[in-house]
Amino acid sequence: MQLHNHLLVQKLDAFIRKYYKNLLLKGVIIFIGLFVLFFLSVAALEYFGRYNSLTRAVLFYTFLTFSLVLLLRFIVYPLAQLFRMGKQLSYAQAAEIIGLHFKEVSDKLMNALQLLNQVGDKNSLLEAAIQQKTLELSPL
To answer: CB under 8 Å to 78, separation ≥6 — which residues?
Structure first.
């Protein structure tokens, strides 16, 4: 039995992709909100203050730096994770996240993953146990 062809692993992969899509959506909303807030703050400071060129330059470059940091943190990083660049959620971490929301399957899911990691090509008893656990978890 191939680990990456197993139904449970495929469902966990789908969960991980959905997790990163939700993280990206949340990041876009946070980015837009903070960007607009900071832009309006800088514009108000510029409008009400009579600043010299140096102060205006500091405000401008601070705004650019802040915007770049926000873009990297809330959009580029989750986008890279979505395309599997860098460190990913492991199946165990995904199972823990699922277990936080569905208490009744937390232990079953972790046990099924542990069994899946232990299965060999010759051990049909473990394969049967994994199939049984997968069928128990399939409605969720």
So the answer is: 20, 23, 24, 27
Q: How far is the CA of 91 from the CAs of 13, 110, 112, 140, in angstroms?
A: 8, 9, 11, 16
Instruction: Take residue 103 and report the two structure tokens written for it.
Output: 């208490």
> What is residue 63's three-state secondary structure?
helix
SS3 per-residue string spanning 123-140 = CHHHHHHHHHHHHHHCCC
The token duo for 121 is 């090509």
Q: Give the pair of three-digit tokens for residue 113.
A: 């993953």
Residue 119 contacts residue 127 (beta carbons within 8 Å) = yes
77 burial level (CB within 10 Å; 0-12, 13-18, 19+): middle
How confident is the model over 37-81, as pLDDT tens digits? Answer: 999 999 999 999 889 999 999 999 999 999 999 999 999 999 999
